[in-house]
Amino acid sequence: MRKTPTVLTLLLIVLAIYWSFHSLLPKYQTDMEVLQTNFSTDRALQHVQQLSLEPHSVGFPGHVKARNYIISQLNELGLETSVQEGYTAGDWSNLSKAENILARIKGSENGKALLLLSHYDSNPHSALGASDAASGVATILEGIRAYLKSDTKPKNDIIILISDAEELGLNGAQLFVDRHEWLKDVGLVLNFEARGSGGPSYMLMETNRGNRNMITEFIAANPDFPVANSLVYSIYKMLPNDTDLTVFRENGDIEGFNFAFIDDHYDYHTVMDNYERLDRNTLAHQGSYLMPLLKHFANADLSSIKSLSDNVYFNVPFFKMVSYPFTWIMPMLGLAILCFIMLLILGFKKKVLNVKDIFKGWIPVLFTLVVNGVVGFYSWSVLKWLYPGYKDMLHGFTYNGHAYIMAFTLFSIGICFYAYYKFKVVKTANLLVAPIFLWLVLCGLIAVYLKGAAFFIVPVFSVLVALYIHINQKNPNSYLLVFLGLPALFIFSPFIKMFPIGLGLKMMVATTLLTTLTFFLLLPLFTRYRKKAALAFLSFLLGIGFLVSAHMNSDFSENNPKPTSLLYVYNTDENQAMWATYEHVPSNWTKQYITMTNNADSVLTKNTLSSKYSSGFTYTQKAPLKKIEPLQMDIQLDTVINGIRNLRICLTPKRSINRLEIFRNDSEILSAEVNGIPLSTFALKDGGNSRLVTHYISDIKYTELDLTLPESEQLELTVYEASNDLLSNSLFTIPQRPSQNIPMPFVLNDAILTIQKFKFDY
Length: 762
What we know:
five-stranded antiparallel beta sheet; 14-stranded mixed beta sheet; globular; alpha+beta
């Protein structure tokens, strides 16, 4: 019997896995001296550096500086710029003033315009926003500079929209879509975003109908490093989206492409989202999208970009993008099932297959799926129990998260090798029947319920070929089996890493199960290995090594700082004050004011300022009273007409604040306006201590609320006033955070918070 060259084939597999990742991103090289008509990552980085010097959320001093810098750069390119100003509340009922920056390059024809989109505000209150989204603004500025240097006259107009208040509720995009005259000209949007500070940028389409024309045009534009697949597209369409592009699609019926990177998620919305930590390869990747797409869509017929039908598509090394119609899904599934049945008939006819061994083949399949599934499902819960500080990383992805992904992937591989070591006496052809059947069932379910993932059938055809070879040959060529395993490695390896990165370590079960399923597709080769027990041991050993590495890096440090939070909460009605935190494991800095002996006040936690993950205070402690002036409430109108009460109140702060938030009791409210802006019906549906509106303060300091409600309702409003000046306010002597701590993202932080209740009995 010919020996299988285990080491060499394993090296080829590792090389294929490496290439599946290597091919996703360009490699950054210093390029300041490239041709003026080429995109320069270094020149884009200069913009990123200038835009991320300080936090620049709406109402913060850095916000004005960022806007002025962008305008100056567009003016230097010879473009006439304008600023669209206006208040919006959007679907999120977050009132803010948006100041969009606009410019336009005139085309030679009168077709639909191409719109380039990113936002310039950072997340409140400490995020520097280098990735989110200075990287997007920089990509557009540098891309437009290079395009203009080419002296090319586009057929279509090119509109540049650098939107504002995206972080507060997509308000800038809403303002443009609702009120700007250029909206009617827009045919397609290219939106550049970020939800981390590194990794490949994923192309995510937003469509109201089908994707066929859009993906066809995207492939025709021929970007060098496309990273896109219809599985993510299908999942994305099912989720509540929240990018500026969503507003264009939902309210303007204008479709487009998002380009967003999601790795190093722990930097997202934090002070660590800075110039130094932005991955240069990632920024180069954004540029590698923009330039070919800009050239292509500036001259394409954007009036015909919509379509009713969908395509399956995915990226793969060497071929870039592969795409085919949804109408092929069922025929391909049927062909795979037919081939499988024919191979079973052939195998039984040749007496290579037998029922007993086929049933034995189900044992390692079920064993590996159960063990790896259970381990993956409970892994994040166990890790948080072992390392309670992880609970304070609200992203759900830790600084050592990549090591955990490697550890659990290797553990899953070890379980698979061990299981098939126990069944080494069963011939390979018999062992292949169960996993192929499982894959066909999975592909059948996908064909019905998740058509975007239908390309999962492609590696199944390869394993069917491998089954045919094993039925007809006693000693198949190992290198041929490696070749047949390449589709599985190229397609699924990035997914194994992507799911916990994109959705948090709680999705480690996707990694362990997908690793197991991919292992099944490589069984034609792996079952021929004589040293499966040794490979299982090696996989476990390497997995333990990554766990040790993760443990060694589990503590917080200056490079991997701990998210911390501290608030001073003053209840003006009760004249009581307390310190509050969102930390589950308070840092030494926080412990100066809060110990872990007092759990958070239940009433305060139940009805507090909104946050991304609905986080509540974890601990509170009595605090000294400070002279903080409460806001002033004036009733300007209170009348009843035909049983309907019309109430207008004005809330005026007596101190400098950043945010005012209003909650209501379960009284029915028929309509509401804040500073003349109607609130969405969604904000009025749910009563019972639900948030009515949040006003992010910029130039208009007061909040005027117009309400209509049934005369019989007993309205009560709870008003929260927040200022992010706890560390700088002269009433307090809070020391600055140590270098190994940062403000916790997604929650109100470093804030002085006042609470007042107002009853409006009639």
